[in-house]
Amino acid sequence: MGAIKVSNLSKTFRVKVKEKGLKGSVKAIFKPVYKTVKAVDDISLQVEKGELLAFIGPNGAGKSTTIKMLTGILYPDKGYISVMDICPTKKRKRLAYKIGTVFGQKEQLWTHLTPYDNFKFFGAIYDLTDGEIETRIKELKESFELDEIMNTPVRNLSLGQRIRCEIVASLIHRPEVLFLDEPTIGLDPVVKENIRELIKKMNKEYNTTIFLTSHDIGDIEKLCKRIVIVNHGHIVLDDSMDNIKYHYLNKKIVELKLKETGELPTASGITLLKSKGSNVRLEIDTTKISISEVLKRIDADNMIDITISNIPLENIITEIYKASVK
Ligand SMILES: Nc1ncnc2c1ncn2[C@@H]1O[C@H](COP(=O)(O)OP(=O)(O)OP(=O)(O)O)[C@@H](O)[C@H]1O
C-alpha cells in the first residue's frame, strides 16, 4: 500500500534578481526584475507503508520544497499528492494526526519547559487523553532512554538529548509517516549512531513509514534500503541501496605504500587518482581489468603495504550528482 503517492509534482518560485552594489539595490526597489526558479519539476514517486526512504540531493535540489508540499505547508503549482490517502493541501489538519516531522535544524520543543511538559503539551494538541499521553510517554521514555532528563528544561539539554526529545515529541500521537529532515546534523558519531538505531527500531516496531533527507552518508547507508536522488527539481535516480552499490562496486580503490617511487601499473581500467611520494591511489574498473591482473603489474619487492577497498558511497553519490547535470 502506498503511504505517499506523488505524481507530476511541480513548484516554481518567483525570485527578485538584484544587481550588484547600491545602484542595484535602488533598481531592485523601483524597477524590480524577477526570475522564476523551478524548485520542484515534475516529480513522481510512491513510498510504500513501512518503507524507509532516503530523499537526497545537493543544496538547492528541491528536497525541502518537496517535504513542505507533502506536509501541507506549501501548495504545489501542479501535480497530485496523497499522504496516507489524504490530500495535504485540502486536509492539512487531518493529515497532521497521521504524520510527524523532525527538522534537525529547527526546534519544535518549548525550551523553557521540560521534556515531560513538552510531551504532555504535544499530546494535548493531538487530542490524546491524559491516560493515553501518560502511557505513550512511558513507552517512548523507555525506548529513547529519557528517564534521567525528563525533568530538565530543554534549554539545558545537550544537542543529542534534545534531538531524541524532538523525535519523541513527533511520535507522541503514533504518526504513520515520519518526515525527518537532517535528524543527525551536528551530532557526534556516537549520538548519531544512537539516533539511527532508534529510527530503525521505530520503523521496525511500529512499521512507521520514514521519509528521510540527509547530507550524512552514514544516515543513508545505515538506515535506508531505497534512495531517491533529486537535482534541479528532478528525480535523477530512484533505486535500491543494493542496486546502487552493486552497480558501482565494480570499481575498487587500490592504495599502495611503496618503498621507493617506481613505475606504476598502466592499463585500460586503471586510473591514477593520487601519487604523492611513496603513496599511490589507483581506481580499478574491474569490468576492464581484474584486481589480480593489477597486482601482477606491481613490483611486489617494492611494496610496503596495500589496501583494496570499495568506492565510498559518498563518492558514488557525488558521481551521480555530477552525471545528472551533464
Ligand atoms: N520561499 C522561497 N522563495 C524563493 N525561492 C525558494 C524558496 N524556497 C526555496 N527556494 C528555491 O528553490 C530551490 C530549491 O530549494 P530547497 O530549499 O527545496 O532545496 P533543498 O534541496 O532543500 O536544499 P538544502 O539541501 O540546501 O536544504 C532553490 O533554488 C531555492 O533557492
Automatic annotation (TrEMBL):
Keywords (A to Z) from UniProt: ATP-binding, Nucleotide-binding, Transport
Keyword set includes ATP-binding: yes
GO MF assignments: ATP binding; ATP hydrolysis activity
SMART domains assigned to the protein according to its UniProt record, in alphabetical order: AAA
Entries under PROSITE patterns matching the protein: ABC_TRANSPORTER_2 (PS50893)
Matching InterPro entries: AAA+_ATPase, ABC_transporter-like_ATP-bd, ABC_transporter_ATP-binding, P-loop_NTPase
Keyword ATP-binding belongs to the record: yes
Pfam families: ABC_tran
Record family assignment: Belongs to the ABC transporter superfamily.
Protein name according to UniProt: ABC transporter ATP-binding protein
Species the sequence originates in: Anaerocolumna cellulosilytica
